[in-house]
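note to self: dont lose this again. the chain is below, predicted strucutre after it. 572 aa total, dont forget to put it in the shared folder this time
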Amino acid sequence: MISIFEMLGIYGLEQDKEDAILSSLLTGDPVLLIGRQGTAKTALIEAIGSAFHEASKRRFNNVLKAKGNVESMMTEEEKEIFSFHIYDASKINFEDLIGFPNPEEMKKGKMSFIKSPMTAWGKKLIGFDEFNRQEPARQNNIFELIRSRRLQGMDTGTIWIMNAMNPYGMAGTEELDEALVDRHQWFIYVSNFVEMSDVNQERIVKHIGGSDAIGLREWANLHSKYEVNDGRKPNEPYLINETLANTGEIIQKMMVEASKKYQQLSTEVGDPYSWFISRYWKSVTTEMQGKPWKVELSGRRAGMLLRALLAFRAIDLTKCDMDSSRTCRNLQDMFKSVIKMTIPIGIANAGNGIDSNALNSLMTNVDIYSSFFKAGKDGKKARTALDAVYELLTTNELSRKVELLMSDEADEVAKNTIWSTILNSLKNDLKSPEDLRNAITLGIVAHIMTVKPNAVPLTMQASIAKHSSKILKLNELCENISITGQFVMRINDITKIVESYDNIFTRLQCKLLFEIACKENKDVDLTNDMFNNICDSIKLKCSQLSRLLDEKKIDSMKVKSITPASTSAISV
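---
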């Protein structure tokens, strides 16, 4: 299928971005076009508005003809012609949008405004050009309109909002209110001329836009591609720009079919998609914690993201139905595209586009959840896959993380990524009990690899073996673990718990956990209840570690008993 916007004379817009704009038309959520001057941002908005305008004139003509060219027989709805307006946000005043109060209506106690061709009342589509050249004080003039399609609390009848701006930092640009930015669903970066293909560059060079070659149009009676003529006599048809009307009808037909698919998708996969957004964003937030490029996600943004995913998919499926030669895009790649175009980074203030670190985090976390996309429409399977990967990403307990990594729930992409994160975070020395505990866990993994090689990705096995080699002399390490402080009075109970584990790995971890407890509670009066709670917590962690072990494959090893001591070779 030819690009919809190429039919309107807009070239160089990638399919992902075209589908995003069409998705915004489907749901009615605002879109913000970002690009340098001369990238046809405003022309795109004008082209869409003009196409809908001409298509509505054609419908008017058809109804008028069916009723014997008697306009009085038409309903007000049948007479309605699609109207739109593009404002210069840098110059606009509130009165330009709302008009002036109607004194006659005000005498009757009614709030009403005098409408003009420029006011927002009745405009189905509104665009704001130079969106970030408006002074901060002027931004309030349009906030309510973008937020609720209202002015002074009254419905304007506006459905679609399409805005355009230069990247922040260009001369004359202003910082935008973050709440104003957050009202937009899509953030589309329009390519510069030099970034386009040779074919599109040639098309653009040859194209004459609506404000180009005005003198030639006068002398040679040429017509702009977007030129419309709304003049007519009563009971006579409108003159139609057939090119625009044809494209407008194609888009409208697409929207009708896509809306059906949207509702179907909402029923079939709405819950799994919602669950994905929740789990995905929590894991992204965990990874970004404390980073200067941390990205926040509001509840409003989460809802927009869900609608964007459903709409984008609906548009893609509709295009495939309309063009049998088109192949529907991979679901995982689709999610990446949508997330990239719906998360606002570097738009409201300093920065030029999406921060590379933030973008890498956003995209990597989609890949980690690749098992979700393989589940298809099986909501239960998809949710199980999500939960498994989510726990992998968010649990702080390495033994539990390893247990999940060695299960069948997570796929290879997630396993490789998370194993790499684990290994990169490990320290070369074993000065703290926690570091030693982690090394013990990897020691277990190394043992398991000898009897079940497929349990660990091949690319990770050498690194795991390297780290686990640090604890080969476990008996020696055991001699350096001591119980101190108030826990000495509980030595018999501690010894009984430790020696209840036959495997050296679990036994050693148990000793380490008690040593950590000594440090954490050295200034606390150790009551019976507190000690029992500590023991229960340690037993739980040891049971997690024990689940990793195949007792039949890993030989039991003798360890020396714990003895009270006032000092320890390992600093606590």
